Amino acid sequence: MSFLKPEDVLKNRNNLSSQEADILNKINEKVAGAESFDAIMDFIFDSTKDIFPCDRIAVAFLEDNDRRVITRAVRTKYNDLHLGNCYSAGLANSTLFEVLQNRHLRIINDLECYLEFKPNSAATSLIIQEGIRSSLTCPLIVEDRPVGFLFRNSTRPNAYGEHEVLLHVLMAERLSQAVEKAWRISQLRAANAAYMEMLAFASHELKSPLASISMECEMLLEGYIDGLNEAMAASIKRIKSKVQTLLESTDDFLTLARYEGGRLQVEVIEEVDILAHSVFPALENVASLAAARNIKICIEPQEGIEPIRCDPRAFRIIFTNLIGNAIKYGIDGGEVKVSLSKDSQSFKACVWNNGPGFPPDEQVKLFKRFSRLYVPEYRKVKGSGVGLYIVWQLIDMHNGTINARSEYGKWAEFYLSIPQ
């Protein structure tokens, strides 16, 4: 085993063949345009395995405050893999610790001999079982910060000399930042997918018991159990109101999880009666909320409009959110107007309420995920912060647009347009 300083190796960087220089240039291009961490790893292995000994490459990243290293990608010429993805080991008392601390290169040209020197090295024992006999390791450095290691291995002993080390260092230079960035992006995507899966599971598990609680509250309020005094009834109404808020949030989160997971699709149908199939069902969904605040809902025109082209289920969600928000953010005893119109080119709808509305500088927060307006009058209004985001996505899937306007302190309206 030996260690080399990268700066000493790089003194010979002009001693490259035209083929080697061409491959390094291609690596630069590929790394810059790669769509994923896996794509980078595939290209590096396939393009370099023939210019110097390479039966296996791997990338490992530092974790747990640089105290542990975890393998995150492996490419081999063979299938009998013993040291694979997600293998982890502490750096204490390892020769990798010296690679990390001094930023040196490590060359092991006889792994069987090295195992005699380091008999407790589980990683060495595993990789020998794969038939590997030589190992070349260098740190991956990003902005003067070590982030991991690039390993190259051969089934031949004594496979790596100074020229092979030079090539390995030059590749690591080109790979470090792109590999770490691509890996972090893939991790973020995986974390987001896991988060959405958890969100959907939790929302689904909550929905049934919440619905049962709401139903039992309704039964109590309707007199199915005797002895309910005025104070008890008021308390049950408050419980039911809070449960209803939670039910609305679980519906929003379930819809969001479906969208983020690619499972929320629109199925456009010709000749949809928008009142019968979307607006009226939405009104049923928010009827108890409107009754609790004594808010009147007006539909214009009451006789409806000509059939439109849309996904009625999607518009049921859209109108439930828009009308529900108009009620929640309106005033007690107020009014909500739902206006519909259609011409040869588009279907248009507007949901208006008299209430606090919103100031112009808060409008930019609308239709964004988990975003809520900072308006003093709304401090006590509960919400998930995803309803309008879902509405925007569903309308966008119809190639439509939605916007909002308000005269702060007086009214607000949300208006949408869908091409026909």
Automatic annotation (TrEMBL):
CDD domains, alphabetized: HATPase (cd00075), HisKA (cd00082)
Keyword Transmembrane included in the entry's annotation: no
Coiled coil: none
Enzyme class per UniProt: transferase
InterPro entries in the cross-refs: GAF, GAF-like_dom_sf, HATPase_C_sf, HATPase_dom, His_kinase_dom, HisK_dim/P_dom, HisK_dim/P_sf, Sig_transdc_His_kin-like_C
Recorded superkingdom: Bacteria
Any one GO molecular-function label of the UniProt entry: phosphorelay sensor kinase activity
The EC number(s) this enzyme carries: 2.7.13.3
Keywords of this entry: Kinase, Phosphoprotein, Transferase
Gene3D superfamilies, sorted: 1.10.287.130, 3.30.450.40, Histidine kinase-like ATPase, C-terminal domain
PANTHER family in the record: HYBRID SIGNAL TRANSDUCTION HISTIDINE KINASE C, TWO-COMPONENT HISTIDINE KINASE
Protein known as: histidine kinase
Species the sequence originates in: SAR324 cluster bacterium
Origin organism lineage: Bacteria, Deltaproteobacteria, SAR324 cluster
